[in-house]
Amino acid sequence: MNRGAGRITVGVTGALLAGGAMLFPGVAAHAADGAAEKANGGPFAVPEMVVNDTLGIRDRCTSCHTGIRDPGMAGRGQPAAAHPGGFLVDHRVERFGCTPCHGGDGTATSADRAHGAVGGGKPMAVGRRVEMACARCHADALHLDGAPFLSLGRRSIDRYGCVGCHRIGGFAWREGKAPDLNGFASRSNAEWVYTWLGDPKVYAENARMPRYEIDDKARDALTGYLMTFTEESPFDTTAFPAEGDFDNGKRLFRLSFCISCHTVDGKGADEAIDLGRVGNKWNRASLLRMISDTRSLAPDSPMPQYTFTNAQVADLAAYMMDELYDPYFADPEEDSTLANLGNSWPSEEERVDAGRRLFKELRCANCHSFPGGEEWIRVGPDLREMTGDLLVSLGRNEGIDFPWSLEEYVWRKVNDPRGMEPAEYRYKMPSYDLDERTALGISMAVLAQMIDDEPTAAFLVHDREMDPLELEGEFGELVSRYRCTSCHSFSGVGHNTTYDLGMEGSRVQRKWLRDYLQMPYTIRPILTIRMPFFNITDEQAEVLADGIMRTRRDVLVEGEGDFRQSPARIAAGKRLFDESGCLACHQMGSKGGYVGPSFTAGSPVGRKLTPGWIVRWLDDPAAIKPEVPEPRYGFTLEQRRSIASYLMSIR
Amino acid sequence: MKGKITGMLIAAGVILAAGAAADSNGAADSSAAGELPPFASLAGRPSGGSSDPALDSGARVYGIYCARCHGNEGGGDGFNAYNLSSNFGVSPVAFSDSLTWRDLDVEGARAAIKRGGTAVGKSRYMPPWEYTLSPLEVEDVLLYIRSMPSLFPE
């Protein structure tokens, strides 16, 4: 048998099931990959076997699943049904076979054996379970199209900071994102923290901190201890006006698009904690500090450092302290224990001491920095190394009545971290109160990274979202200051919720970019998130525009721009533009749709984009921006040049 | 007339009803007295809402490319539909309306998806998708829109 990927066709004539080309009769076996495989990628014969030695594949599945690549068999019953969706475009059957994703026994010659129903082979994965196999190659991706549960699970692991305690495959260890508690007592108040510790979700529905099931007395002790974290030199507020302007603060809050990340009373993008009660949590001085000097309180936070005048900061604080304050939160009439804070301990010393021990016992230091250093970090199990043996070592708690398998254990542990552990472990893992979908996603993601049959490096697909972005000099500092990568990626690096800036320097004109940074406007009405008004200074805008123009270029895009925008092309482009129905989604003047960017609002398109970029974009929009709703029209190069000429003439 | 339409839709309807039944049973299981359903029972279900992977794939494609004009539930009332009717006097087809399928057959729908509205003598504002979607995705989304009258009855 030949080495490498290829397909062996056994049989004399090919039963032509798809396409239309003739298949060579006889046995055809091909060596690794590439051209041979491509040449062989047309119609196929039965019975057949996909062979890929690198992945250890010997799959006969297509002998029965004959319609797997045939659009005509979409939605039909098995075994002839076509594979749904676009999965086979990037994961060609000829290369990957079926079993790397679906499990089962590819060499079997009967359906029951192939599907693992008999014969003791690996059972076939069905339904959502198939997603877990994606993580074999896409080991560090936070999001994968077509794997909604795995993606939700991996995003949630990142969101809830599971790596504060656990090592998890595909995640950097201990990248805790919880707030720094140094100086906490100078920013907040005992009533807030006492209520928060009872259940963080009472303060903010989207709080990430878990619920520690501790009694009122313990909560009181922790509160006492946390309130000893005072600032040595409190934040100096004398530079700010004593009174802010509520209305201007309201206007700035809106312009800054705080709810592009935060929610307020549940409305917003849910990327950051709800601010609906931030006036209950923080005092004015700490709000002034957070807004004016974000990094001093949140050095690693995805939040940008806005550029405000001190008067504007005071206005924002005035608005937030008043509007984002809930008089019914931490109300002693609702919670009678609040009135007795500190009274349940014989002395303040004992209270604080008990709180200190609890702080250590509950592993608060695994996620939060605090005045005391790192020596209190105590980690939980390494989840990469969990196996069935672990279950034996854990033993069974009495009263457990589910099948004692690793899957069921993980699933129950995620849902109810304490319910199933012997009493001595009960304090270790807190409760996250997850909905079923999220709990299932996390369980699948945790189980997926335990699968130890990792393919060779050649098949691992590295996801760049969490890679560090290293940009030099003043430009790099500004990109970091405004946290561009919280919403934009740079060639895949960064959390992209909007638009990848990898080719921005070749896509747009410098003047447009410069102006847009200072005076952003709505480009895509369909999005909830908006480019905030950062108050970027003239000088900063120049540096940012220069940096992007210098470093974010694409030679292919620029090469495409080398043509003459002749009147003939402009006229031809206009005809094509009209005939192709571009206005269904784009606006030109007052006419058109709201799906894509307007060609006239904010800036005429001829003053925004470059001709090369339009030519390249029109060739295949999804190649530049996956899942963009703009179709590929199959335009010829000349047609694309004409449309680009027309659009560039709109100035 | 109505009987005839119903007949046409029986196949899709059966598939969908089965999917819906499976899901509602599952939901009932998981909420019963706070009992946690076994991982195996949840992980074995399809990722989408129905029990048919092709239909799920179609729903996903529809959500990305079609819903903005044709509406989330195929009512022809996506958020961009207003712009199309007020500017150009065209209305996106309402797939969930069973009467739609009296005039529109599968071949016509497939041609419109692949080659755009002009290919079937309709509006240019329906673009062609044959260079964007894989042939399988076209079939999946076709299956999905044909199922809409039973998925989203008025």
Helix/strand layout:
The complex is a heterodimer of chains A (about 650) and B (about 150).
Chain A: E1 5-9, H1 34-39, E2 48-52, E3 57-59, H2 87-90, H3 93-96, H4 99-102, H5 111-114, H6 129-137, H7 148-159, H8 190-198, H9 200-203, H10 216-226, H11 246-255, E4 263-264, E5 267-268, H12 278-281, H13 284-292, H14 294-297, H15 310-323, H16 348-361, H17 388-394, H18 406-415, H19 436-450, H20 473-481, H21 504-507, H22 510-518, H23 538-551, H24 555-560, H25 567-579, E6 587-588, E7 591-592, H26 611-619, H27 621-624, H28 637-648
Antiparallel strand pairs in A: 1-2, 2-3, 4-5, 6-7
Helix pairs in contact in A: 6-19, 7-19, 8-10, 10-16, 11-15, 13-15, 18-19, 20-23, 22-23, 25-28, 26-28
Chain B: H1 2-31, H2 39-43, H3 53-65, H4 67-70, H5 81-88, H6 100-103, H7 106-115, H8 135-151
Helix pairs in contact in B: 1-8, 3-8, 7-8
Short characterization:
The complex is a heterodimer of chains A (651) and B (154). In chain A, 36% of the residues lie in helices and 3% in strands.
Task: Please describe what this structure looks like.
The complex is a heterodimer of chains A (651) and B (154). By secondary structure, chain A is mainly alpha-helical. Chain A has five domains: 5-126, no CATH class; 150-173 and 380-459, Cytochrome Bc1 Complex, Chain D, domain 2; 184-255 and 277-293 and 310-340, no CATH class; 473-553, Cytochrome Bc1 Complex, Chain D, domain 2; 557-648, Cytochrome c-like domain (Cytochrome Bc1 Complex, Chain D, domain 2, Orthogonal Bundle). Chain A is 36% helix and 3% strand. Chain A has helices at 34-39, 87-90, 93-96, 99-102, 111-114, 129-137, 148-159, 190-198, 200-203, 216-226, 246-255, 278-281, 284-292, 294-297, 310-323, 348-361, 388-394, 406-415, 436-450, 473-481, 504-507, 510-518, 538-551, 555-560, 567-579, 611-619, 621-624, 637-648, and strands at residues 5-9, 48-52, 57-59, 263-264, 267-268, 587-588, 591-592. In chain A, the strands form three sheets. Chain A has a three-stranded antiparallel beta sheet. In chain A, a hairpin with a 2-residue loop joins strand 6 and strand 7 (591-592). In chain A, helix 10 packs across helix 16, helix 13 (284-292) crosses helix 15 (310-323) and helix 25 (567-579) packs across helix 28 (637-648). Chain A starts with a strand and ends with a helix. Mean pLDDT of chain A is 86; it is low at 1-45. Helices cover 59% and strands 0% of the residues of chain B. Chain B is elongated. Chain B has a single domain (2-151), classed as Cytochrome c-like domain (Cytochrome Bc1 Complex, Chain D, domain 2). Chain B is mainly alpha-helical and 154 residues long. In chain B, helix 1 packs across helix 8 (135-151) and helix 3 packs across helix 8. In chain B, 43% of the residues are buried. Chain B starts with a helix and ends with a helix. Mean pLDDT of chain B is 81; it is low at 1-33. The chains are: A mainly alpha (651), B mainly alpha (154).
